[in-house]
Write a structure and sequence with these properties.
The chain is mostly beta strands. Helices cover 0% and strands 45% of the residues.
């Protein structure tokens, strides 16, 4: 049974930092590219970042590039999202997920399993 458990969200001031974690189980973690997606209030879920199964290739959307960094620890079946210089527009519920094909990392509608997500609120 696939389980994705996100944590680390919080209320932070603009310019602040957070580190999100996602513990994965129920599948062979090392075989999957891992992604972070988010759903801002009143909007659809969107792709944020991805990391290849070996932890070498990464991709970040333009709006977070230079501020967010995705990483993974295959020994712990965990993926992380380091978030710096947070802005109000980063406010969202953040989810992690797993993709077999790099070409499909941003295909939000293709993901079958979802965790509960973790709330990130950036506000003064």
């Amino acid at each position: 049974q696939v389980q994705l458990v996100e944590s680390g969200g919080d209320l932070v001031q603009p310019g602040g930092s957070l580190r999100l974690s996602c513990a994965a189980s129920g599948f062979n973690f090392r075989d999957y590219h891992m992604t972070w997606l988010r759903q801002p209030p009143g909007k659809e879920r969107e792709f944020v970042a991805a990391i290849g199964n070996f932890g070498i290739a990464t991709r970040h959307i333009v709006s977070v590039r230079g501020r967010f960094t995705i990483s993974r620890d295959n020994a712990k079946n965990t993926v992380y999202l380091e978030m710096n210089s947070l802005k109000a527009e980063d406010t969202a519920v953040y989810y992690c997920n797993a993709a077999r094909k790099w070409s499909e990392i941003a295909a939000v509608k293709n993901y079958e399993y979802w965790g509960h997500g973790t709330q990130v609120t950036v506000s003064a």
